[in-house]
Amino acid sequence: MYSTLETPHLEFAFECRLQFTRVYSIPDVHNGGFRSAVLVDQGTFDGPRLRGKAVPNSGGDYAHFRDDDTAVFDARYLLEVDDGTIIYMQNKGYLWGRKPDAMQRLRAWAF
Fold it and tell me: Where are the alpha helices (DSSP H) in 1-111?
């Protein structure tokens, strides 16, 4: 089925499982808050459309934890499909807590 601007069609392609074991924190960045780099060590993806593995050391999640208790995520890494095709993956998003101490607890757990 094809998508149009009026009726987009989304289809599940795969689920990705990544392992991040190296975490770096960069305190007091110029625009407030701090940054972190969580690097991809290994991983796999599998689904009805694609399957393969994460390319080790090809990127990670580079988050900005802002002073307003919002985290801005920018993840970039490479995936290698079983047939050898390389995919550049980029995910962006925001995270904030429903409870006042949620982000503080996240920072304490992660860093």
Answer: 102-110
- Contact criterion met (CB below 8 Å) for 19 and 43: yes
To which residue do tokens 């689920």 refer? 15
* Spatial distance between the Cα atoms of 106 and 98, rounded to a whole number of angstroms: 12
Q: Which domains, and CATH codes, for the chain?
A: 15-99 (2.40.160.20)
pLDDT tens-digit readout, 22-70: 889 888 888 888 899 999 999 999 999 999 999 999 999 999 999 888 8
- 46: Cβ–Cβ under 8 A, 6 or more apart, which residues? 14, 15
**Are the C-beta atoms of 48 and 66 separated by less than 8 Å?**
no
pLDDT over 70 (residue 1): no
Q: What is the mean pLDDT of the chain?
A: 90
Q: What are phi and psi of 110, to 5 degrees?
A: -85, -30
Q: How far apart are CA 63 and CA 90, in angstroms?
A: 13
Residue 41 has which token pair? 């060590």
